[in-house]
Amino acid sequence: MGHLTVVGQSKAEARDVLDAFKQRGIVNLLALGGDPPQGMTGDWRPHPDGFHYARSWCAKQWARGGFCIAVAGFPEVHPRAVSRASDLGYLKEKVEAGADVIITQLFFR
């Protein structure tokens, strides 16, 4: 399973990684927003020509076809989520954007 985050890369760079996966026969992907780069405080900012969230990345790749896309789910609620309801709403958006599988961490602590 290829692991691709949207942190620090342009849409073109992400597309190049996907093309390399496809050439190698890798069709299962884990699409993640990713963590802010080490040392960055506050909210990270996406690449100027990049994706901000995994759900927008997921929708773009789903439209291209040929991949089975897994996304992250958070049973204990994402640390930056405003509420459990909003976190569930984001997960719903990922699924509606084309996610095939939801992978969870069993715990953060």
What portion of residues is helical?
A: 25-40%
Number of strands: 4
User: How do the helices and strands follow one another from N- to C-terminus?
Assistant: EHEHEHE
Model regions low in confidence, pLDDT < 50 over at least 5 residues: none
Instruction: Determine the strand fraction and express it as a percent band.
Output: 15-25%
Query: Which geometry do the CA atoms define?
Result: globular
What's the gyration radius in Å? 14 Å
The average pLDDT is 79
In the sheet with the most strands, the strands line up as 1-2-3-4
Q: Roughly how many Å apart are the termini?
A: 25 Å
How many domains make up the coordinates? 1
Structural class: alpha/beta
User: Main beta sheet, described?
Assistant: 4 strands, parallel
- Count of alpha/pi helices: 3
Secondary structure elements and their pairing?
Layout: E1 2-5, H1 11-23, E2 28-32, H2 54-64, E3 68-73, H3 84-96, E4 101-104
Parallel strand pairs: 1-2, 2-3, 3-4
Helix pairs in contact: 2-3
Structural overview:
The protein is of the alpha/beta class and 109 residues long. It is 34% helix and 17% strand. The chain has a 4-stranded parallel β-sheet, with helices on one face. α3 (84-96) links the parallel β3 (68-73) and β4 (101-104). It starts with a strand and ends in a 5-residue tail after the last strand.
In short:
The chain is an alpha/beta fold.
Q: What descriptive keywords fit this protein?
A:
globular, 4-stranded parallel β-sheet, 17% strand, alpha/beta
